[in-house]
Amino acid sequence: MDAAQQEATARARELQRSWYGEPLGALFRRLIDDLGLNQARLAAVLGLSAPMLSQLMSGQRAKIGNPAVVQRVQALQELASQVADGSVSAGEATDRMEEIKKSQGGSVLTGTGQTSSTSGAPTVRRVVREIQSLLRSVAAAGDIIDAADSLAPTHPELAEFLKVYGAGRTADAVAHYEGHQS
Questions:
Q1: What is the DSSP letter of 123?
Q2: Less CB within 10 Å around the terminal CB: N or C of the chain?
Q3: What is the pLDDT of residues 79-101, one digit of tens each?
């Protein structure tokens, strides 16, 4: 790899860090390890071609262009954390990955696309992920933080919202959401 390619890869990974919280190579490798997958299976569950997954992992491509794929990544991250904490078994995880693979994305706020199989109502985590996905489709995390810092002196609650949902972790956003429900 020449210097220009190395620079482009480093820039793509930095963009991934701002958009997704970390480079996609690290995120995807963690999903592979946590869920017992290989790259081909991960690509299939996400709805990506194996070459596209490889390009995203290596930093040859920076952004996931399909919002439904981004939602599937988020769903797999949630599933991996549930497997790690023991609330979902390996067998249940396999079934859930099939559901994730079949999901078309869409807005949980309007009731289209993904819905919980046990209830028609979206879960708090799904609503939070939808808000995060919407904010992150508009601006990179670094830009959202800059905007929040600009708003903080006059609109601290709005600044906090932008930081928590636009650049924070899903668990923190869920706690924030639940703390602001009456």
A1: P
A2: C
A3: 998 888 888 888 899 999 999 99
Tokens found for residue 105 = 């994305």
To 10 degrees, the CA torsion angle through 61, 98, 31, 16?
A: 30
* Residue showing tokens 């046990």: 118
Is the separation of the CB atoms in 163 and 139 below 8 Å?
no
* Terminal-residue alpha carbon distance, the chain: 55
As a whole number of angstroms, the distance between CA 109 and CA 128 comes to: 10
Output Rg (C-alpha) for the chain, integer angstroms. Answer: 17
Q: At what angle do helices 67-84 and 90-102 cross, to 10 degrees?
A: 170
How far, in Å, CA of 172 to CA of 178, rounded? 10
Contact predicate 20/62, CB 8 Å: no
Average pLDDT over residues 99-121: 54
- Using one digit for the tens of pLDDT, what is the confidence trace for 116-171? 333 444 578 878 888 888 888 778 888 899 999 999 999 999 999 999 998 888 88
